[in-house]
Design goal:
Blueprint: E1 2-4, H1 18-27, E2 30-35, H2 54-67, E3 73-81, H3 93-98, E4 101-105, E5 108-111, E6 117-119, H4 124-135, H5 139-157, E7 161-162, H6 183-198, E8 202-206, H7 208-211, H8 222-230, E9 235-238, H9 251-261, E10 265-269, E11 274-278
Parallel strand pairs: 1-2, 2-3, 3-4, 4-7, 7-8, 8-9
Antiparallel strand pairs: 5-6, 10-11
Helix pairs in contact: 5-6
Bound molecules: zinc ion (2 copies).
């Protein structure tokens, strides 16, 4: 039973229309496709949906749901950003109620001295400058703060899915900022996972970074997946697809990896409840 709940479209930084992604999903034999464009932010950005487009996005996905109901189950979602200072309070409750589900992600970690928000995943220069301006160049402090925000999001907002848990490693190639085997990093992840365990949030294995060749492995790293399995935290698999090819990238391989790590099941949301598939 193939499913994917993390799909972007032209409403944000995806390269295809919603209907193209749905047709591709049908072609790839998916049974459930969740559309999850980046939701509008309280400030300007070029990679998220504009506030004025939200209504038509919702209407479009709802119409496509009906149009393709005999071929695939379509779920209406959004990938929503926890933003330092705003948290997720800038999202209207009525919007949340109109969705089937949402993914909670953290891309922003702070503000430059000129108040502009910076992200951990855009590029190396942005991350370097951000850590310099918001954390006086202290990498450990910055990374720990990233995961503290994630703990706050999980504990207080309970997203359906926790998006790309260790996205902050994207620009950490060759361990330029930190080494994942350092004790402080391991402790930080461990603390986060304890919080996730107590929530109803499902963690995703996300193949997006590997598809775009930013990372050698998936989000999160294999040793974190082991920790997740050790705590029996539910896991789902996501493509984080921004184009047609990425929608089917390493589907079987990602399941195989989970099996190798020791997982016996993965979870998918069907619009009402989480169901499990034994692998
Ligand atoms: Zn994301
Ligand atoms: Zn995404």
């Amino acid at each position: 039973m193939k499913f994917n709940l993390h799909t972007h479209t032209k409403y944000c930084d995806g390269s295809k229309d919603t209907e193209d992604m749905i047709k591709a999903a049908i072609n790839y034999n998916y049974k459930i496709i969740g559309i999850s464009s980046h939701g509008p932010l309280p400030f300007d950005s070029d990679w998220t949906m504009k506030k004025k487009d939200l209504h038509s996005y919702i209407e479009e996905v709802k119409n496509l749901k009906k149009k393709y109901k005999n071929e695939i189950k379509i779920l209406l979602g959004l990938e929503l950003d926890y933003i330092p200072g705003y948290r997720l309070d800038y999202i209207d409750d009525n919007i949340l109620k109109s969705l089937d589900y949402w993914i909670g992600s953290i891309h922003f970690l702070g503000q430059y001295k000129n108040k502009k928000y910076w992200t951990v995943d855009y590029d190396l220069t942005e991350l370097k400058r951000g850590i310099q301006e918001s954390f006086e160049g202290n990498v450990e402090k910055a990374v720990i703060q990233y995961y503290k925000y994630m703990e706050d999001m999980v504990e207080n907002y309970k997203p359906y899915i926790l998006g790309h848990l260790d996205l902050i490693k994207k620009n950490n190639r060759n361990n330029i900022f930190f080494n994942e085997s350092e004790l402080w990093y391991k402790k930080t992840i461990s603390s986060l996972l304890d919080k996730v365990k107590k929530s109803n949030t499902v963690v995703e294995l996300n193949t997006g970074g590997k598809y775009r060749k930013y990372t050698e492995n998936y989000y999160p790293s294999n040793w974190i997946l082991e920790e997740i399995n050790g705590r029996d935290i539910p896991i789902t698999i996501s493509r984080d697809a921004h184009d047609i090819e990425s929608l089917d990238f390493e589907y079987e391989d990602s399941i195989k990896l989970l099996k190798t790590i020791g997982f016996s099941k993965i979870y998918y949301y069907n619009g009402k409840t989480w169901e499990k598939i034994y692998i």
